[in-house]
Amino acid sequence: MQQFKLTKEYLENIKLLLASQKTDLLIAALDELYPADIAEVIDELDTDEAKGLISILSTEEGAEVLRELDEDTRIQFLQSFSPKEIADNFIDNLDTDDAADILAELPEDKKNDIIHLLKDKEQASDIKELMAYDEDTAGGLMAKELIKVNINWNVLTCIREMKKQAEEVSHVYSVYVVDDEGKLKGILSLKKLLLVTTSTKVEEIYNDDVISVRAKMAAEEVGGIMKKYDLVVLPVLNDDGKLIGRITIDDVVDVIREEADKDYQLMSGISENIDSSDSLPLILRARLPWLLIALFGGIIGSQIISIYEPQIMVHPEMAFFMPLIAAMGGNVGVQSSALIVQGLANNTLQMSGIVWKLGKELLVGLLNGLACSGVLLGYNLIFNDSLALSFTVSIALLSVIIFAAIFGTFVPLVLEKYKIDPALATGPFITTSNDIIGLFIYFMIGRLMYGIF
Amino acid sequence: MQQFKLTKEYLENIKLLLASQKTDLLIAALDELYPADIAEVIDELDTDEAKGLISILSTEEGAEVLRELDEDTRIQFLQSFSPKEIADNFIDNLDTDDAADILAELPEDKKNDIIHLLKDKEQASDIKELMAYDEDTAGGLMAKELIKVNINWNVLTCIREMKKQAEEVSHVYSVYVVDDEGKLKGILSLKKLLLVTTSTKVEEIYNDDVISVRAKMAAEEVGGIMKKYDLVVLPVLNDDGKLIGRITIDDVVDVIREEADKDYQLMSGISENIDSSDSLPLILRARLPWLLIALFGGIIGSQIISIYEPQIMVHPEMAFFMPLIAAMGGNVGVQSSALIVQGLANNTLQMSGIVWKLGKELLVGLLNGLACSGVLLGYNLIFNDSLALSFTVSIALLSVIIFAAIFGTFVPLVLEKYKIDPALATGPFITTSNDIIGLFIYFMIGRLMYGIF
Q1: Quick check: B260 and A265 CB within 8 A?
Q2: B249 contacts on A by Cβ (under 8 Å)
Q3: Does A230 contact B250 at a Cβ distance shorter than 8 Å?
Q4: pLDDT tens, B197-255?
Q5: Residue of A6, A319, A346 with shortest CB distance to B319
């Protein structure tokens, strides 16, 4: 395929065609695009233009495009439609999971109106059921559309019933086998179905080895299971073991990516899921609090240094290396926490105990610290006259690096233990704490060294 | 399902059973586990134990387990087998894509021996074909196993041929429609196949709207396409448009996650894909270079400060706020770069130009800078006597924050332009540069202010 790339020229052209109402040319222009591409175009249009564009699509395609829109754009866009229009044009054409997600973004009363106005009462009750689940659980990720067959049927009945159900389901990923009570018994592969005669019983050919999850399982854990076991689709059961829905990998890809993005943003000192196109107040709200925390840490740091003002007046050269000590502590601390946070996120940390990890990190800190403080000692002995300063700086650097390595390992593990997001440890918090403690160590050692030399 | 969690007790138990050769009990213990779970167990065993455990599994299951092992464990493990054993017991039972990936980890001569020893000559040539592709391209991700039907067949022929092909293919995701030359024409949904009579022609029911990629496309781009268009499987074409393989989403989930991990590690100052269980030399190699860069930056910083030694001797209080200025510059710089890096990774940055982005970041910097320097000015006016110091610190902070915001935005965009990984900008590099320039700005402003007040 030629991958679609939205250019300024393309967008201008679409806007012109919309303004001049050249519907034929518009249809031709959009014909080659997939819903996800059209959504990219609409994300850049104003609401009137967007309405114009959607109106020339089939309702099925319009619904798909709506699903792919940026959340902000979608909320804006849907404000210009009545509940009846939203129900008929969009929700009616969506799978239950997407419908529930989109409805959840709307105001309470509008949401209820739309659900009441849905023609397909089964879809309405399915959507209501899905909306009752927390969005960060398996129930919140699943869709109701699936194909299931009874364990007592033969292949002929099976295929007949599957044909009926298939009309409602857009993709057939798996055929589930249930008993008379609706409890999940296993899975029937389409491949097997191709290979046997029509009189064969389902019981004889189904596979009872199927991985499933309960509706209450956390989305993050669902993502871990689908990734670990390479699953494309995962059946969801209620507390009684009844099959109530299925989760597809595309929804979970988003969960996996969002999780990684969240950790990344926390490390960079950004507290909400923003991107650079978001509004100014939103960007400030996500960034300023972290800066104020760092500022507060810096003020405490300045007070610690001020305690040692007499020392600085006698040995102003001590001031030269303060930023170096602070920065190195911060860098080592972030390295150590990042390894732990990533290990926790990827589930690669389980086996070895906390003492072992701290011990290893201590060793890494010691070796890195020796290397760095060795280089620094060499530099200072060559270019600086003061023996006291040279030893102060290198011993302090070694101490700060070792401290930061252990502190950086310890903090995320403790946060995880108390069910706080360990990624918090990697942000400005750890650099700021390391700055303060690092400076304190530096001046303590300075006092000691200048006493000796 | 009960999700499997590997505990120390469980592992000890397995080791005991292995040592006492209680095969029956071992088989019973492993019966409930999936290959990915057994791989987790083996990752914690030594090579002899691992061989013992694998030997009680069927060869199909053993091959699956091998595929799921940690790369380091797998390389170690395979060293204890002859090429013939590896060919018969493992490679023969794997899909071509997994076989090619595993063989790529082995030494050149052993790899070639194994391929020659494969009984299935078609598999051998498929594997050789796959190994010719760069692992970071669509060709490197794809497998040869797929089901294809000729556009001129009818449904009956189709199903007969599919039955034959299905024996070779473990999961049937899609049925591809090709012409007599093997060029991809479209896709045949299993659902459609269920709904029509056996005399219907493929031509009448296939869907010609299928997204495909060329074998040379970068893995990252393949991931973007599968994510954007919610694809579970993606056909791969050669330069002539012939269907040569397919990529499934499970392989791409790993690509998506690894990419995010790489950006995360670069930001935290870790240059290789390591986790805390890796060997000490590997961890040091990934972490020490960044620390040495930061150290080098710190030394330059110390030299800049030393230029201002006379100033510090007269006004030692200026030293108090050096770490604060440096840290704030670093924090703002990382925030700004992280937003750009993430925007580039998620493809949400295309539309607006570089000037616009720098302008917006300038505004964000100005507002954050005014807030932070305002708070700091208030603090200093209340708790510090020196007007000169108070204004120096706040004006310097404002300047440094604005500078860091612009610098942090600019650097990753420039790196991206010159095809260097923009995530490099978020690591110690940006904090170190900001430290140096921040200190320089600070003392310049200090000289000015102490001249005025």
Answers
A1: no
A2: 232, 249-250, 253
A3: yes
A4: 888 999 999 988 899 999 999 998 898 898 888 888 899 999 999 999 999 888 888 88
A5: A319
Q: Do B338 and A270 touch (CB under 8 A)?
A: yes
Tell me, rounded to whole angstroms, the distance of Cα B417 from its chain centroid: 21
| Distance between CA atoms of residues A377 and A360, nearest Å | 25
Mean pLDDT score, B323-329: 89
User: In terms of C-beta density within 10 A (0-12 exposed, 13-18 middle, 19 or more buried), how is residue B71 classed?
Assistant: exposed
Q: Between chains, do A34 and B352 touch, taking CB under 8 Å as contact?
A: no
Looking at the DSSP bridge assignments, the partners of residue B184 are B178
Number of DSSP helices (H) and strands (E) in chain A, helices first: 22, 6
> Are residues A342 and B309, on separate chains, in Cβ contact within 8 Å?
no
Q: Please, which residues bridge with residue B187 across strands? A: B176, B207
Give the per-residue pLDDT at A278: 76
Q: How far is CA A137 from CA A133, A215, B45, in A?
A: 7, 7, 34
Per-residue CA distances from A424 to A338, A348, B9 (Å): 10, 19, 32
Pairs across A and B, CB distance < 8 A:
357
Nearest to A372 among B254, B291, B330 (CB): B291
Instruction: Answer whether A190 sits within 8 Å of B211, measured CB to CB.
Output: no
Helices (H) and strands (E) in chain B, counts: 22, 6
Q: How far apart are CA A299 and CA B376, in angstroms?
A: 8
Under-70 pLDDT residues of chain A: 1-3, 167-172, 272, 347-353
Give how far the C-alpha of residue B302 lies from the chain's centroid of Cα atoms, to the nearest Å.
37
Among A163, A276, A298, whose Cβ lies nearest the Cβ of B349?
Answer: A276
Q: Answer yes or no: do B268 and A337 touch at CB < 8 A.
A: yes
Q: Do the chains contact at B324 and A295, CB–CB below 8 Å? A: yes
Averaged pLDDT, B301-330: 88
Could you give the C-alpha distances from B359 to A265, A437, B165, B322, B342, in angstroms and in order? Answer: 22, 37, 59, 28, 19
- pLDDT tens digits, residue range B426-450? 777 777 888 888 888 999 998 888 8
Q: Do B364 and A280 touch (CB under 8 A)?
A: yes
Residue with tokens 């018969």: B88
DSSP string, A99-134: HHHHHTTS-HHHHHHHHHH-S-HHHHHHHHHHHTS-
Mean pLDDT within B127-149: 90
Strands B233-237 and B243-248: antiparallel
Among chain A residues, CA nearest to B223: A253
Give the residue from A67, A132, A117, A56 showing the smallest Cα distance to A94: A67
pLDDT (0 to 100) of residue A102 = 93
Contacts of A162 in chain B (CB under 8 A): 194
Confirm if A188 and A176 have CB atoms less than 8 A apart: yes
User: Does ipTM surpass 0.90 in this model?
Assistant: no
Mutation target to probe the B interface, by most B beta carbons within 10 A, among A94, A302, A406 is A302
Q: Are A269 and B335 in contact (CB under 8 A)?
A: yes
**What's the burial of A263, exposed, middle or buried (CB within 10 Å: 0-12/13-18/19+)?**
buried
Nearest CB among A284, A323, A331 relative to B269 is that of A331
